[in-house]
Design goal:
It is built from three helices and two strands, in the order ββααα. It is mainly alpha-helical. The chain has one domain. The protein has a two-stranded antiparallel ribbon with strand order 1-2. Helix 2 packs antiparallel against helix 3. The longest helix is centred in the middle third of the chain and has 34 residues. It is elongated and about 55 Å long. The relative contact order is 0.10.
Length: 108
């Protein structure tokens, strides 16, 4: 059994028994969260830039939303179609649509 350094114990009274959280696991989770956040920020920025470009070309909001939906669908068309993948893609599309909506209403 590998040796792990335990640095934190759950103090949640609903957790029984208390769960020892290895430092390696905490570090890996932190890194994954940071990578995810960075990736999400990059994607949001790209979506907002796309909205700006389309809007600048006179494309109506509904057409931009349709375009974003199609973009994600096209990107994943050839991917395996598991139920989980389809749910994740749907969540991604809805998140991107929310970004479009927020950006559309914030910019003149």
């Amino acid at each position: 059994m590998p040796s792990v350094t335990v640095t934190e114990i759950s103090e949640d009274p609903k957790t029984f028994p208390p769960i020892a959280v290895p430092k390696d696991l905490r570090d890996a989770l932190h890194l994954a969260q940071q990578n995810h956040l960075s990736s999400a920020d990059t994607l949001r920025s790209a979506v907002c830039d796309y909205v700006d470009e389309m809007r600048g070309n006179g494309i109506p909001y509904d057409d931009i939303v349709r375009s974003v939906r199609n973009l994600v669908g096209k990107h994943y068309r050839d991917a395996a179609r598991s139920q989980d993948t389809m749910k994740e893609n749907a969540r991604l599309v809805e998140t991107m649509i929310e970004w479009c909506k927020d950006h559309w209403h914030r910019t003149p």
